[in-house]
Design goal:
Catalyzes the NADPH-dependent rearrangement and reduction of 1-deoxy-D-xylulose-5-phosphate (DXP) to 2-C-methyl-D-erythritol 4-phosphate (MEP). It contains 17 helices and eleven strands. It is α/β, with parallel strands linked by helices. The chain is globular and about 55 Å long. The structure holds NADPH dihydro-nicotinamide-adenine-dinucleotide phosphate and magnesium ion.
């Protein structure tokens, strides 16, 4: 089936690859959205001819409008515009690849508009998992994972949805600081932390991989997507990033999904599901890979993983507090305002705040503000 998509975060790492997938398979792009990159949005608008384009940053609205004035496209801005792009009447599917928890409201808007969701934005589920999955169920809307580990788990479960799962084996590359001690991490720089061994991604997720908060966020994401309790989700360090994750069933049979570390396949699988199509990714050559290695994570050095487990164990608004503290802490680290190890400290300490409220959009936004205030007053 030829789907019609709206792509949120179209100028980012996932967004640009998603557009290549659309182009390769002849899918129409009805909506595009980005934060402020008007030059690339203009280029994408000329190439894909969407009906609507959203530039979130209101100060860029008029200049983007002028850039595409010769095209039959509606230009919108702000959170209202982003939600409009998520609920476009002409689109069947919304691929949400914005970075950060700003992705929550457009995901909810897309569900309410009965769009299939291809979800890359993990912060949506970390903060609003309860709300999003409940609403998706009520509206009978599929939430298809784009994150490579969750795509792998989803693929492993296909055909076995009725079977009891013992464990999910969530693989992690270990990032650029695998094997290092806390003392060695004290003075690492932004450049060191952005140097991921296997994956080329946006800056925020690359820092999250270095602290291993990315795996913590993914553990929470897996809990919401697959309804498997956190104690049955085991993080396994797998340096080669060839096994993208695995599922162990009741009979101890383990099914894993393998492939080269390339986001094209999981992005494409979410878009073409339930079909499989040819993909321009490099085929896996196991002789070239040679060996696959596995290690237990070092939870003391990479304490973000422990913090994420504690946040989801407490549930409610605790994962939101942690996520918001992390978003701000990563930004402060990238801006040179705090050290690498301070990111994990702030994420852990923010759980001192009260996160026992109900998970509603308003409470999530209030928790976000409280976490921001906490971080800014703690540095
Ligand atoms: P990037 O930083 O490369 O791109 C982010 C995109 O979101 C850009 O298009 C950016 O626009 C846009 N954006 C940011 N804020 C807003 C906003 N308020 N309104 C509209 N658009 C906005 O990130 P990635 O592509 O790496 O990651 C996107 C999401 O996918 C994240 O949640 C990440 O965790 C997840 N993910 C990413 C993977 C990867 O391989 N990159 C793997 C698995 C998950 P602009 O360019 O104008 O700033
Ligand atoms: Mg991932």
């Amino acid at each position: 089936m030829l789907k019609r998509l709206s792509i949120l975060g179209s100028t980012g790492s996932i967004g640009t690859q998603a557009l290549e997938v659309c182009e390769a398979h002849g899918f129409s792009v009805m909506g595009l959205a980005a934060y402020s990159n008007e030059a690339l949005l203009e280029e994408q608008t000329r190439r894909f001819r969407p009906q609507l384009v959203c530039i979130f940053d209101e100060s860029r609205y008029h200049s983007l409008k002028a850039r595409v004035a010769d095209l039959p496209v509606r230009v919108v801005t702000g959170i209202g515009g982003l939600c409009e792009a998520a609920s476009l009447a002409e689109a069947d599917m919304v691929l949400n690849a914005v970075s950060g928890m700003i992705g929550l409201r457009p995901t909810l808007a897309a569900i309410d508009a009965h769009k299939e969701i291809a979800l890359a934005n993990k912060e949506t589920l970390v903060t609003g998992g309860e709300l999003v999955m409940r609403r998706a169920k009520v509206q009978n809307v599929p939430v298809l994972p784009v994150d490579s580990e969750h795509s792998a788990i989803f693929q492993c479960l296909n055909g076995y949805r009725h079977c009891k799962v013992n464990r999910i084996l969530l693989t992690a590359s270990g990032g650029p600081f695998f094997g290092k001690t806390r003392a060695e991490l004290q003075y690492v720089t932004k450049k060191d932390a952005l140097n991921h061994p296997n994956w080329s991604m946006g800056q925020k997720i690359t820092i999250d991989s270095a602290t291993m908060m990315n795996k913590g966020l993914e553990l929470i994401e897996a809990y919401w997507l697959f309804d498997v309790p956190p104690e049955q989700i085991e993080v396994v360090i797998h340096r080669e990033s060839i096994i993208h994750s695995a599922v162990e069933f009741e009979d101890c049979g383990v099914i894993a999904q393998l492939g080269m570390p390339d986001m094209k396949l999981p992005i494409q699988y979410a878009i073409t599901y339930p079909e499989r199509r040819p993909c321009p990714t490099k085929p896996l050559n196991l002789w070239e890979v040679g060996k696959l290695t596995f290690y237990e994570p070092d939870m003391e050095t990479f304490s973000c993983l422990k913090t994420a487990k504690e946040a989801i164990r407490r549930g409610k608004l605790y994962p939101t507090l942690m996520n918001c503290a992390n978003e701000l802490a990563v930004q402060l680290f990238l801006d040179g305002k705090i050290s690498f190890l301070q990111i994990a400290e702030l994420n852990e300490r923010v759980l001192e705040l009260d996160g026992r409220g109900e998970v509603t959009v308003d409470n999530i936004l209030n928790a976000e503000a409280a976490a921001r205030e906490f971080v800014l007053s703690s540095i």
